[in-house]
Amino acid sequence: MPEKILIVDDDLETLRLIGVMLQRQGYEIAAANTGEMAVSMAKKENPNLIVLDIMMPVMDGYRVAKEIRQDPDTAQIPILMFTAKSQVDDKIAGYDAGADDYLTKPVHPAELSAHVKSLLARSVRTEVPAVVESPGHIIGITACKGGLGASTLALNLAVEYYNLSKKEVLAIELRPGMGSWGIELDIADSYGLEKIFALPLEEITDETVDKYIVRTTFGIKLLMASNKTRQIDFSGTAEKLIRMIEVLNKKNPVLILDIGNPYLPGYDEICARCQELIILTDGFQSTVLRTRKLIGNIQMEPPKTYRNLEVILYNHLRSDLMLTKDQIDKMLPGTPVRTMFPSVPEQVFQANQKYQPLVKIQPEGLYSQQINELARLIHSRAGA
Question: Is the pLDDT of residue 128 over 60?
């Protein structure tokens, strides 16, 4: 059955053009030209995605998004705001209203198609048991966008956790086509994740997955993603990722997942399997608003097995435009920022030059100390 997309725009020509374009790609199309009709059709049609204009009379797109998010029957439907409003404040308002993504008109059809495919891939749901008793401890690291240091944190936390606990730690780079660990550590065979994706679901077993795990000289094990940006077939990827994590969780006492951003297929299910979930943000208002949206989505998504959620503030830029920690805490009620990580580009560069994790070459540095404190906190909560 084709995936259904609800297009909402008061301009009938835009409705027709977008509808025809998406219909040619095999999607089933429903259309609404008022906000009131959009809210009603979202509940009636239960679409897989809503493409929503903002500037509509009576009920604008912001209000439509808020009403859809407030209804339990429609709250989980992805929303792509597609509008001529292009100011930063407009985008922030869109994300705050409940949008998952934001595109400004005019846009190339290929770009719209790519955003639609990405949101639909992210929203794929797989069956996960209501309670997952994990043999191993799963720690997930994520952020609302790239560039906040999630990969660096995941790698260094894995090393520090291993040094502290002396348990086997497997770090997994869940970034298909965008891996960095292979380059940073000078490991040639860093295509493990993509090779597992190429397997049929039933062939993802202990024996097959173990072939693609790399044992490092600094104690931890790695399952890495390729750094080759290329077209990846995401069909079935969510199910394969969940199956892979299930298999690895049975054999490894500690998994540390570099989850990346929310566009990873199966993202919600992967987060639900983490006993510890670490979310990174910076101090820009737009990032904090998107982080609040991300936390809200994660907390709404059943089932949840994680017991602890941490927010880490990454100070990668000193600027008057950055919010203070107190201001960020007020914007993230219930999830205060517990740790602030410094920006250490020079140390990261030195580590990359030596093909070593940062905590190995600068163990006394401030960043390494913060990693150590985080590892100790998680280790204590794991009951180890």
Answer: no
